[in-house]
Amino acid sequence: MTRWLTERRLLNPSRAGVSSPERAVVELLTDYRERLADACTTLQRDLRAVEDVTRLLPPPRLHGHDTVPVEFFTDRDQLRKRVDEFHPLTRHELLAMRTTFPEPEVLEESLVTDLRLLARGAACRLLVSASALRRPGAARYVESVAEAGAEVRVATSVPLYLLIIDRELTVMWAGLGSDRDRGDVALHGSLIAACFVQVFEHSWAAASPHTPGPSADRAQTARDYTPREREVLALLATGAKDESIARRLGISERTLRRLMTQLVEKLGVESRFAAGVRAARLGLVD
Does the keyword Cell membrane apply (predicted)? Predict the structure, then answer.
């Protein structure tokens, strides 16, 4: 330190003390600041060199371990399209865990795909949460796949949205909590699928078999509908508004709304749109 002070002429002539303590502190801090700046410059240069070398290396290979190809989806519509591509490839088994259901019109499209899968002879087990069953159109979807041969169980809650196809492909929601914007992932590989099969089986064992509600006995053929009801459904299928339909039938809008409520219940659906889809499937409208 004495040498450092001497070089900067900060000692008294008698070397008995510092001539200017304030200047000594400033000089000391300035010196250390310059040293730190030089060290940071050297460190940044070394880090860039490491990154340059790393980019030249081949991708790491984990000998003795399987890698898992992953697809990530931030758009739910893109995920549905991808799942629709997977469905025709399902040969043996589909395991599904539902924490919720999409809107009725989307659910109707899914029902068509799932019924085709069941018609091909693939086994299907569906585990749904009690709250999911209260979603519009959910009860009809569940009862339809159950009638087609799917096994359905209901739990108070289920841990996650999950889809396992032939124990080879796992599709799951990647979100946390209620954040549904985190996206979904599709994991390819039998080992990772086997892990999630264990999750499914554990939840399945704790769930109760689904008991069809009164909707299972709802009208299913054209003979179960009056000419007036079929006329309402036909007009509804054209996209006509309530005022126009009521005027065409010569009834009040209040009477029409009551009739529509009865039709929605009779068809076993939750909305006007779903009623039109169901009516078309039953051949009630041309």
Answer: no
